[in-house]
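Please check this:
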Amino acid sequence: MKKRVVHIVKATGIHGTEKHLLTLLPGLNSRYDVFLIVLTEPGNSLGRYFEKLKEKDINSYNVIIRSDLDPVCLWNLYRLLKKIKPSLVHTHLIHGDIYGTIAARLADVEKIISTKHNDDQFRQNRVIKALNIAISKKTAGTITISNWIRNFIIEIEEVPPEKARTIYYGLKDVFPLPETSAIRSELGIAENRVVVGIIARLVNQKGHKYLIDAFHRARQKNSRIFLLIVGDGELKNELRRQAKERGLEGEALFTGFREDTEKILSIIDIFVHPSLWEGFGLSILEAMSTGKAVIATKLSAIPELVIDGETGVLVPSKETELLSKKILELSENTELRSRFGNNGRERWKKMFSVDKMIRETENYYDELLTDL
């Protein structure tokens, strides 16, 4: 009889962590009975996400969370865990960690672990830090998605090194990519344009404003480049206004959120990701897996993905002049773009495959559950 594993996460949309679970959980289903409990806010049912989970045969439950401090949510989560009776609870993100760990302890779950997905700045807040330290003492172990985050939780959240293990995200292979003419036509991008693109939430962390300024500089020397910004978020209107002020109307396109990542990546020639911090950089890995040349910032976990001068280019954060120079350099060198893209895809195959991620996660579960 397979042992039961319950994952717990709070979700507001289908972003990096949610995509990760859509990839990881089906792979674990062959060895374990896997369940996912999603904490959702009132009025945000995440229907599309639950449809995707159903398509992948993942048993999923929805528990409403009305505020950061919601005892009703905790009670409902506890009751659900008592019903499922898992051998292991695996939590994700701060609300999942707090509510999941407390509910699992109350429900007498033998083993609790957490995956840390980001080095968010709020985690250094004194109250949040103390809370995370207290929670980590109740868990059997921690998975980090990069060595950068592993070092972060050891230093900031006082997790013992022997309880912290790095398991990189894995991505499925989406090759061959769709033919580009149709999507270029749909978006109104001429065949001769060199597309500089980013796929990310429109939030401060992702550094879009530096990309817009860098692109504006580069375009003054190469009018063939075109800027494609894919994603939605709180900075949507501000970034559109910035692009208009830089005279980029007709030269930059904001598509909003799109699920057809493969189609978008098929027409991107240079993938740029100028983050201010990054626990991993899933969209960077998506670009690498599809053979795209990458320009990203040299910080956080990004150098674990992108090897500067081999699989792409790394630049300091907020350095718009240097970022512009690198965009211009790659836009004018098809051979260099191809070499970076091919090398990046080979690195993805070696280091970031789905099979590798699933195998390492299963091995960790086995170690923790051997005595049960």
